[in-house]
Each structure stands twice: as structure tokens, then as C-alpha cells.
Write a structure and sequence with these properties.
There is one protein chain. This protein starts with a strand and ends with a strand. It has 274 residues and is an alpha/beta fold. It is globular and about 55 Å long. The chain folds into 2 domains: 114 residues, Rossmann fold; 121 residues, Hypothetical Protein Tm841, Chain: A,domain 3 (2-Layer Sandwich). The chain is built from 11 helices and 13 strands. Helix 3 crosses helix 4 and helix 5 runs antiparallel to helix 6.
Length: 274
């Protein structure tokens, strides 16, 4: 038996977590000095409201090695453990889970997905499907390493407010961007986030994203997309419909973005993974 473990940043719908029997270890979100366990004490929708009114940018903290260790120890009694975490470039969660393994017995593997949100979640789905097919843990790990090389993540920032709150951009530049209606497209590079393009206006912003996706490859028939959003189902549905119409993918999953990733993306932010 192979047990699948992850942290709460994968943003997978509840039915998929249940389908593949995924054990989720939550990160902690601190808002105005009050702590919440992501997905347990606070829903995405509740978080969005608190994030908008918070005086400072919410802070996230990884689960301790002890929390991971307790989970791994219970599961390793009757099988192997495969743990997929958020990118080590965004959080210390991978390091924490890796530390937990050192003092434990059993076959426990920790994988850095180099992703977040459904970029992370799509790897979990792939692992779950491979487990159902009866693949060995070595075969699954090798497959995921190849999958990571071909994965793409684009982050659409509708507002730069969270970047300003986080001290990564001056208030003046943030205000100027708002006045000029500047939107920013980021992409993931080796597990870290970098600016790809700056676009004026919402419609051009969304359509330019679709063009960038099309530049990645010609055949999407075996590709699954994941789209997560921060209180922005309208744009998420628009992107889903356009992706289906233009690229005919295997699947498109939409879900609300969890608190950890929403802290990066900000209000109306969207993450597209494939």
C-alpha cells in the first residue's frame, strides 16, 4: 500500500482528496496576530474577507517536522508513504517534511513539487492515478520527476496590493499601477516566481494569458489544466471555456484558491497550471 500525503497548499477540491485518500497536513495562517489552520479553521471565502480588511499582509507558516513525523509514523506501519509538498522556493514545508523522515523507519519519500496551488495538485492527482494502477513507489517518483520538467504555472495578478503590503513594491508604484490599470502575469521558474509580462486592461490581460499558453505547445489533448481563483469565478470560468474551445485539453479543474496561495496572488488573482 502507498499512502499519499500533502500539505494544504495544493488547492484540490474535496472530492479529489477523498477519491485518492490524500492525507492533508495544514499550514498555519496568521491574520492580525490570530492563527488559523488552513482548510480547517478558515475557508478560502472567509480568508478573502479577512485578507481585504487586514492591516498587514497575512503570514503563513509551515507545519513543524513533529506534525509531519506523527502523520508519517502512523501511515508507515502498513505501507509506503509518498508526500508531495509546495515548492521549496515558496515555503519551508518541504524542508520540514524532509527533516521529519530522518528519525523514522519505513519507506517514506518526500517530493518537492516545485509548484503551488493546482500545479501542486495536478501532481497529486497523477500520483493517485498511478497508485490505483498498481505502480511501485519508485515508478511513481520517477514519473513525477518527469512531469515536473514539463509543467507550467502562470499567476495573474489583478491587483498589486499584496505585493505592496509584503514590501516587494513601493506604495507609489502600486498606486500608479492601479491608476493605469496595469495587470501582471508571473510564471514559475524552477519553483520560484518571476514577472513574465505587464499588461494594460482586464480583457487584454486574460487574452494575452491564453496566447502565452498556446505558445507552450501544439497538442493539449492529453493535458489537464488547473485554475484557482481568489473570489473571481467569472474570469476563471472565462479562461476555462476559452481553453476548452481553443486547445481541447483532457480536463480543466476550477477551485477556490486556498489561503496560502491567495496571500501571494491577492484579491481577484488567478493561478493557471498545466
Amino acid at each position: 500500500m502507498i499512502h499519499l500525503v500533502t500539505d494544504s497548499t495544493s488547492d484540490l477540491p474535496k472530492e479529489i482528496i477523498e477519491k485518492y485518500h490524500i492525507i492533508v497536513v495544514p499550514l498555519t495562517i496568521s491574520i492580525d496576530k490570530k492563527d488559523y489552520l488552513e482548510g480547517i479553521d478558515i475557508s478560502p471565502e472567509e480568508f478573502y474577507i479577512k485578507m481585504r480588511t487586514a492591516k498587514e499582509l497575512p503570514k503563513t507558516s509551515m507545519p513543524s517536522p513533529g506534525v509531519f513525523g506523527e502523520t508519517f509514523k502512523k501511515l508507515a506501519i502498513d505501507g509506503s508513504v509518498l508526500c508531495l509538498t509546495i515548492s521549496s522556493g515558496l515555503s519551508g514545508t518541504y524542508q520540514s517534511a524532509s527533516l521529519a523522515v530522518k528519525d523514522l523507519e519505513g519507506d517514506i519519500r518526500v517530493i518537492d513539487t516545485l509548484a503551488g496551488s493546482l500545479g501542486h495538485g495536478l501532481q497529486l492527482i497523477e500520483a493517485g492515478e498511478l497508485i490505483e494502477e498498481g505502480k511501485t513507489i519508485d515508478e511513481i517518483v520517477d514519473h513525477l520527476e518527469e512531469m515536473k520538467k514539463n509543467s507550467r504555472i502562470f499567476i495573474l495578478l489583478d491587483t498589486l496590493e499584496n505585493i505592496v503590503k509584503g514590501g516587494r513594491l513601493s506604495k507609489f508604484k502600486g498606486s500608479l499601477a492601479k491608476v493605469l490599470d496595469i495587470k501582471v502575469i508571473l510564471h514559475a521558474v524552477e519553483g520560484k516566481v518571476e514577472i513574465l509580462e505587464k499588461v494594460h486592461g482586464r480583457k487584454k490581460f486574460l487574452n494575452r494569458t491564453l496566447e502565452i499558453i498556446g505558445d507552450e505547445k501544439k497538442d493539449f489533448s492529453n493535458t489537464a489544466f488547473g485554475i484557482t481563483h481568489v473570489n473571481n469565478i467569472e474570469d476563471a470560468e472565462y479562461l476555462k471555456n476559452m481553453i476548452i474551445d481553443k486547445y481541447k485539453p483532457r480536463d480543466v479543474i476550477i477551485n477556490a484558491m486556498g489561503a496560502t496561495m491567495a496571500t501571494y496572488a491577492g484579491d481577484k488573482g488567478i493561478i493557471i497550471s498545466f
